[in-house]
Specification:
Layout: H1 2-11, H2 21-29, H3 46-59, H4 73-83, H5 87-108, H6 118-128, H7 134-154, H8 161-182, H9 184-190, H10 206-210
Helix pairs in contact: 1-7, 2-4, 3-4, 3-6, 4-8, 5-6, 5-8
Length: 217
């Protein structure tokens, strides 16, 4: 059971983040990087980095708040892959990423990731971020665990392409959302921010306490 739990965590690692000092320090170091049009990824290829930036802006577009790339979510994810994630898990993420963007390219009729636009990526995200039944969730988790176990035992494994794409899209959304909400600007200017906590009000109404905003920290 412990082995299976470890394998499941490995399969979900890209989308799992908690506010550890390492990740918060990494996030802080990414805040002043240039916009993605001038950005050179540390781990991803230029093409992958461009597609990733386009995708996180589809997930978190600019409205009355900044887009994901405006607070450098894409830079954080690249740095997370480069500096934090173990090698075997990085290989798994890249495999899923490649399958996801191969599908986007095939459906859009485009040949290069550098040619992709938001309109090309949106249909794939809509398909793979749809709510799944409990049975489908369980089947996907089981398939991912079987794949990771096969990789650990023999160095080879197979995973259904659509399951890989589902996993990538959902993990990317989770990590992008965490990085976005944890960024300095969003944390201090968009969410309710109180750097020096004061009175504890356990059952207060959020609308009254913060104007309806979620707490930053």
């Amino acid at each position: 059971m412990e082995r299976r739990s470890a394998l499941k965590n490995m399969g979900l690692a890209f989308g799992y983040a908690v506010a550890t000092p390492t990740l918060l320090s990494l996030l802080q170091s990414c805040k002043d990087k240039p916009a993605y049009s001038e950005w050179s990824p540390s781990f991803l290829s230029k093409e992958q980095g461009y597609a990733l930036a386009q995708t996180v802006d589809v997930i978190l577009p600019k409205t009355d708040t900044p887009s994901a790339t405006e607070v450098n979510v894409h830079v954080f994810i690249d740095a997370y892959l480069d500096e934090v994630m173990p090698l075997d898990q990085r290989e798994f993420v890249i495999m899923k990423m490649n399958k996801f963007y191969d599908k986007v390219l095939a459906d859009s009729g485009k040949e290069s990731l550098l040619d992709l636009e938001a309109a090309d990526i949106e249909p794939a995200l809509q398909a793979y971020l749809r709510k799944r039944s409990d049975e489908e969730e369980e089947a996907h988790s089981e398939a991912i665990m079987n794949y990771m176990e096969a990789i650990m035992q023999s160095g080879e494994g197979s995973l259904d392409d659509d399951i890989a794409r589902f996993s990538f899209a959902n993990d990317l959304r989770d990590l992008a959302t965490w990085a976005y909400k944890s960024s300095e600007y969003v944390g201090e200017e968009v969410l309710a921010y109180l750097p020096i906590p004061g009175e504890y009000i356990g059952c207060g109404d959020l609308e009254t306490l913060t104007g309806g905003k979620a707490w930053s920290i």
